[in-house]
Amino acid sequence: MTIQQLSHLTFIVKDLNRMAQFLCLGLGAIEIYDSQSQHFSLSHEKFFSLGSIWIAAMQGDPPAERSYQHVAFKIEEHELADCLARLEALGVEIKPPRPRVEGEGQSLYFYDFDNHLFELRQLKPSQLIDIIILNNKTF
Length: 139
What we know:
The chain is α/β, with parallel strands linked by helices. 24% of the residues lie in helices and 29% in strands.
């Protein structure tokens, strides 16, 4: 078996409309589908397109606690400030930056309204690994 690509991400949320605002206004996603009263899955759900990634949001009980488990999206460095402003305008909790490896670049960590942690970063994982190796750092 060969995994070809990521199909979609699913987030369980208390309020689908609030998640839609978070994804669309905060991250620039486009709402594609709303199941409304038709439950083809476990509950009411909405689908979004964010870049080339499909995101499903399903109504239910979100995680009760926060953790460092997160989803990271790559963006361009010049987009970070605009994203930060949009997320702050929505009332999203922005986490303080963490220590960086020299050359790693910036990223932005933040929680949605249902305890899911997200990261916006300017480097792809392969670029980060190259920087860590060049700086002779270990995991």
